[in-house]
Recover the amino acids of this structure.
């Protein structure tokens, strides 16, 4: 599409550091890549942003995350949930606030995109545990949350261009969906490389639509199936009620029963009840 070529050229001149990641969330991701981090470092980092810390506590104490004891401080939440889960919540809480725009059209897309990303995160965590890989559940959450990060970047970039009086036509719904289809993988990979995000998340961003995907990558496999389930349920920008999870290659790899697939759809439905 000619418009996409124009947008690609314009995007090449846009700053890669448009706000799609909160700096504290990024620092937490990178901290956890080291081998000698402490829980104290995690807590101190979160507490550098009291607004973010408050959002994390709100999520940690919500029905979808809460344990038997309510956490009153970030330290208590970190001890209860662990460093990776706190990092996941930091990324989720900050992503929720970043999916907003004063432009009505862009804001509508951002809100739908957030509902989809959050559902994919929760669904991927649940499915990873149900499929027998609990050790990868936290990675699956983050991967599900970030798999469409290229779409958020495109919306932020188009918002910036729109404010400059450029690419006005790109905000029409049909054209915007086509731009997403053509460019969101490319731009998502560009982001992940720039911010030096872990390979497990880069692979999901790069291959969540690839027909020839690595079937040995269990995180990618889970996120792909949950993404399909969201599309089937209409959670996000597109709905395709004709999809059948039982026919998906990923369902066969994970050896899911019909009951487990039905339970997944229920989890995705429940995810819509948590408003951040």
């Amino acid at each position: 599409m000619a418009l996409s070529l124009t947008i690609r050229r314009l995007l090449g001149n846009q700053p890669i550091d448009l706000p799609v990641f909160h700096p504290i969330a990024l620092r937490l991701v990178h901290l956890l890549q080291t081998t000698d981090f402490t829980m104290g470092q995690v807590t101190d980092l979160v507490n550098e942003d009291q607004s973010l810390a408050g959002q994390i506590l709100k999520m940690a104490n919500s029905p979808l995350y809460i344990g038997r004891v309510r956490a009153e401080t970030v330290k208590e939440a970190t001890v209860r949930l662990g460093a990776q889960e706190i990092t996941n919540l930091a990324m989720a809480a900050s992503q929720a606030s970043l999916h907003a725009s004063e432009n009505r059209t862009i804001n509508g897309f951002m809100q739908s995109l957030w509902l989809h990303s959050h559902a994919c995160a929760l669904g991927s965590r649940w499915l990873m545990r149900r499929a027998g890989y609990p050790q990868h559940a936290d990675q699956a959450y983050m991967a599900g949350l970030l798999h469409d990060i290229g779409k958020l970047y495109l919306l932020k970039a188009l918002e910036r261009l729109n404010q400059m009086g450029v690419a006005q036509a790109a905000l029409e719904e049909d054209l915007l969906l086509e731009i997403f289809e053509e460019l969101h993988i490319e731009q998502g990979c560009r982001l992940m490389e720039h911010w030096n995000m872990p390979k497990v998340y880069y692979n999901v961003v790069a291959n969540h639509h690839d027909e020839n995907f690595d079937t040995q990558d269990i995180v990618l496999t889970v996120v792909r199936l949950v993404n399909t389930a969201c599309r089937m349920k209409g959670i996000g920008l597109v709905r395709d009620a004709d999809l059948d999870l039982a026919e998906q290659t990923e369902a066969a790899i994970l050896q899911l029963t019909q009951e487990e697939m039905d339970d997944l759809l229920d989890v995705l439905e429940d995810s819509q009840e948590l408003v951040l």
